[in-house]
Amino acid sequence: NGYNNSHYLNHFNGNISLTTPENEYLFENYKNITYDKVEVEYYEEHHHLEQAMTKHGNKWYAIKQNPENLAQKAYAKLMLNTCYGYLGFFESPISTYEYKSVNGVTVKEKAKDGITGINFAEVPAASFITAYGRCKLANDINKVGAQNVVCCDTDSLFVINYDFDELNKLLPISTQLGDLKLEHEFEQIKALKAKTWCIADENGSVIGQATAGSNYKFKHISSFNEGETIVSS
């Protein structure tokens, strides 16, 4: 059945924060888990948030599934994705700077201090959503074998050595919210770092790609290399 994710866990020293689903995943998949000291934080159920999230999710997911046009579909996806992001967008101090020329020398000076984020963020909720997603991906990786996963992102896996029918038996593809769906089939893949990957057909023509920090689009996978010069056209 291939390697379990536990094959890659060694020893960890230091403080670590875990949600309940992450802690349960550890004890289900690893042996000899011990903690020297544990501090537990309990959160009351936030019924109003639960109701609001359910209403918001149902509304925009229904629109995304049956949009009137592509623009409405894109907007619905934006409303679904940003809702989760705002939950974790907590207030934190931030400093802004400006650059001045002093005697012919450019110097950096603090302009002002401020606050970024929103005061109605719900970080515990965002943490648990992330944790459930992370544990689902980890369990899915265990099913297909870690040696068959080139890379993963927040909500996606890049799997090799399976055809679609074989993969669908292990990870059934459905239309249910929260389940995996098939986005691309590819013959070649390069993954350089987090959120920087490229997939292509048998001829090397790019099917899909992500380049963290850039919107530049490569046309052929042979050009997708570490340190590649990007020139705007």
Overview of this structure, please?
- By secondary structure, this protein is α+β, with helices and mostly antiparallel strands.
- Helix content is 33%, strand content 21%.
- The protein has a three-stranded antiparallel beta sheet with strand order 5-6-7, with no helix packed on it. Strands 1-2 form a two-stranded antiparallel ribbon. A two-stranded antiparallel ribbon has the order 3-4.
- Helix 1 runs parallel beside helix 4 and helix 3 packs across helix 4.
- The chain starts with 19 loop residues before the first helix and ends in a 22-residue tail after the last strand.
Give the overall shape, derived from the CA principal axes: globular
Percent in helix: 25-40%
For the report, how would you describe the main beta sheet?
Answer: 3 strands, antiparallel
Strand content: 15-25%
Strand order of the largest sheet: 5-6-7
Give the N-to-C terminal Cα separation.
47 Å
Q: Which stretches of 5+ consecutive residues score pLDDT under 50?
A: 1-8
Number of helices: 5
Radius of gyration in whole Å, from Cα? 22 Å
> Kindly state the mean pLDDT as a whole number?
83
Run of helices and strands? HHHEEHEEHEEE
Report the strand count: 7
Secondary structure category: alpha+beta
This entry's quaternary arrangement is single chain
Summarize this structure as a short list of keywords or feature phrases:
disordered N terminus, DNA_pol_palm_dom_sf, globular, two-stranded antiparallel ribbon, 233 residues, alpha+beta, DNA-directed DNA polymerase, DNA/RNA_pol_sf, 33% helix
